[in-house]
Amino acid sequence: MALREAIFLALLAIHLVAAATWMGGLLFFILAVVPAARAAPGADIPALLGRAFRPTAWIALATLVLTGPLLLLVQGVDLHQLGRSAFWRSAFGVTLGIKLILVLGVLGLTLWHDVVLGPRSQTASDPGPSRYVGRAIGLLSLAVFLAGTALAQGL
Question: Residue 8's domain spans which residues?
């Protein structure tokens, strides 16, 4: 196995573990934490688990943001290519552009959720805005995952 291929596989493994950590955390929250919170509304389960998972989630996101560009670089996509309009008109470039926009959305909404809405929802009687932004983060994250799958297929 060539060194470049070994580096690519190592980066890909790290990227996939980080993606699984992020998506797994979101799914756990949606499928387990939210129903448990509805069953025991006074227990403040979402806030407790959200605070506990937050460092892991941000580490996963940071890992994804770092390994994504490195994966492109190892695949031969460099800054020179990224500066060419022909690249962004290709199927791969369009998919990458969509994924980058979605990633920015996930990062922005997650930051807003964790810094602004999360603390507010702990003192509010209705955590509505936090809940809706959380849902948007989940949907955007799924879209990022699908775009990443398309990129892995060369689309």
Answer: 3-152
